[in-house]
Specification:
single chain; 418 residues; alpha/beta; DNA polymerase, domain 1; 3 domains; 6-stranded mixed sheet; 20 helices; 7% strand; flat
Length: 418
C-alpha cells in the first residue's frame, strides 16, 4: 500500500543526473564564510544542516565539515577549524527552523561551534513516527522522493585534507534534498494526526541534557564483565586510563591504538614480564608495541593498586528483565503484560515501540508501580520519569490495565506451570 507522499512501488527509482557544474568547494576562509552568511541571510524558509565528524578515527567528536542548504541561497560546505567562530551565521539562522536527519547525532558538535538551533525538524525521527520501515536518509529519500542516494562515504575520515571531490558531492546531497523530504513529511504527519507528537519529540531532542560523564568510564570496555579478580579489574582500569590519555594527546580514536578486547585480554592474563606482554597474540593494535612501556606501566600500576575497584557497582540500575521471573515475579508479570499491550498499541499507531515509550520507563514503572495502580497514578509516574505528554496520553491507560490484570492473574507455581 502506498501512503500519501510515498513513491509507488512500481515507480522507477530516479538516479541523480551527471553534473556538469564545477566541483564542490569548501569554504575555509573568514572572507568566504562571511560572504556565505550574507547569501544565507538572503535565502528563504527553513534550512537544512548536517555535520561530518571523524568518529572511529579521531578522539574528539568535533565537526570537520558542516553542510548547509537554504532555498534562494544555495549549498555551503564549511570547514570549521580554519573558520573558527560561527557567531555571525548563528545570529542569522538561530531563530529559523533547522532540518536535520538524526539531529541528536549532530547537535553536540554544532553547539561546540556556537551553532545552536531553537527549532528543529528531524527527518529521521519523523520517519519513525510515520511508521516507515527504514529510516536511514538514503532509504527515506528514495521512498518519499524516488531518488537514489549512494551512501558509500558515511564512515569516511572527514578530517582528511584535502577532502576528495566525491566526498564533497556526497556531503552536499545530504542536505540538498532534506527540505523536500521535510515538506512531504509535514503533510504525512498532518494526515496521520501526528503533528503535535512530532513537535513534542523534536523539542525533547533539543531539550535533552548532555549526559554527565561516567564515574568509571573504563567499565564500558568490551569484555570487562568477564574479569573477576580485583587485580584484574585494577589492571583494566589502568590500561584504559593509559590508552585514553594517549588517545586524547594524539587525537586518535582509542580503539585504533589498542582495541578494547586487547586491553581486557592483557588484564585477564596479567603477564608476569614486559616480554610476556609483548608476546601475547591477543594484544594487538598499531600502538600495542610502539607504546609497550606505557601498557606495561599500566599493568604494574594495576597490580600494585591498594584501592581496587569494586567487582560489582552499586547504583539504581535495574536487573536485566531475563532475571525478573526469579528475582521479582510480580514485576515480571506486570512487564510482560504491559509490553504486550504496548506492542498492540504500537502496531495500531504505526509508531515503533521504543518511540511509543522508552523501554527503561516501562521497566521502572513495572518494577516499582505506583500505589494504587490507576491510569492517573501511572500517568503521573510516567510524566515524572520524563515521558512526553503524548506518550503519557497514549500509554498510561493500557499500562495501568495490564498492571491490574497482572495482580489478578495467579503466578505459575509448581502445580500451575505449563
Amino acid at each position: 500500500m502506498t501512503e500519501p507522499g510515498h513513491t509507488d512501488s512500481a515507480a522507477p527509482v530516479v538516479s541523480l543526473p551527471e553534473r556538469n557544474a564545477p566541483p564542490r568547494e569548501v569554504i575555509d576562509t573568514r572572507e568566504g564564510y562571511l560572504e556565505a552568511v550574507r547569501l544565507i541571510a538572503a535565502g528563504e524558509g527553513p534550512l537544512a544542516i548536517d555535520a561530518e565528524r571523524a568518529s572511529g578515527f579521531k578522539y574528539s567528536q568535533r565537526a570537520y565539515l558542516i553542510q548547509l542548504y537554504r532555498r534562494g541561497a544555495g549549498t555551503f560546505l564549511f570547514d570549521p577549524p580554519p573558520i573558527g567562530s560561527f557567531a555571525e551565521l548563528s545570529a542569522v539562522i538561530a531563530d529559523e527552523e533547522w532540518v536535520l536527519h538524526a539531529a541528536s547525532q549532530d547537535l553536540a558538535c554544532l553547539r561546540e561551534v556556537s551553532l545552536a538551533p531553537t527549532k528543529i525538524f528531524d527527518t529521521e525521527l519523523a520517519a519513525r513516527l510515520l511508521g516507515l520501515a527504514r529510516v536511514g536518509l538514503g532509504t527515506v529519500v528514495e521512498e518519499l522522493l524516488g531518488i537514489h542516494l549512494a551512501k558509500e562515504h558515511s564512515a569516511a575520515d572527514w578530517s582528511t585534507r584535502p577532502l576528495p571531490a566525491a566526498w564533497l558531492e556526497y556531503a552536499a546531497l545530504d542536505v540538498e534534498l532534506l527540505i523536500d523530504v521535510r515538506d512531504v513529511m509535514v503533510g504525512m504527519l498532518d494526515e496521520q494526526g501526528k503533528t503535535e507528537i512530532a513537535r513534542q519529540e523534536f523539542q525533547a531532542t533539543l531539550d535533552k541534557e548532555t549526559k554527565p560523564a561516567l564515574a568509571e568510564p573504563w567499565r564500558r570496555l568490551s569484555g570487562v564483565h568477564s574479569l573477576r579478580g580485583a587485580k584484574n579489574l585494577s589492571a583494566a582500569r589502568e590500561l584504559w586510563l593509559a590508552r585514553d590519555a594517549l588517545a586524547r594527546e594524539t587525537d586518535t580514536a582509542p580503539g585504533r591504538l589498542v582495541p578494547d578486547l586487547s586491553l581486557t585480554a592483557a588484564a585477564r592474563a596479567m603477564p608476569a614480564t614486559k616480554r610476556d606482554l609483548a608476546s601475547m597474540r591477543e594484544f594487538t593494535g598499531r600502538a600495542s608495541r610502539s607504546e609497550l612501556d606505557r601498557w606495561w606501566a599500566a599493568l604494574e600500576a594495576g597490580r600494585a593498586s591498594t584501592e581496587p575497584p569494586q567487582v560489582t557497582r552499586a547504583g539504581d540500575t535495574l536487573p536485566p528483565p531475563r532475571s525478573w521471573s526469579d528475582r521479582n515475579p510480580e514485576a515480571d508479570a506486570r512487564l510482560k503484560l504491559a509490553r504486550q499491550a504496548l506492542l498492540a498499541l504500537s502496531e495500531e499507531q504505526s509508531i515503533p515501540l521504543e518511540n511509543l515509550l522508552t523501554p527503561e520507563l516501562l521497566r521502572r514503572a513495572a518494577w516499582t508501580p505506583p500505589t494504587p495502580v490507576t491510569a492517573e497514578t501511572v500517568a503521573e509516574a510516567l510524566a515524572k520519569a520524563g515521558a512526553r505528554p503524548w506518550q503519557v496520553g497514549l500509554t498510561a491507560q493500557p499500562i495501568a490495565q495490564a498492571f491490574v490484570e497482572a495482580l489478578q492473574t495467579p503466578l505459575d507455581g509448581p502445580e500451575g506451570e505449563s
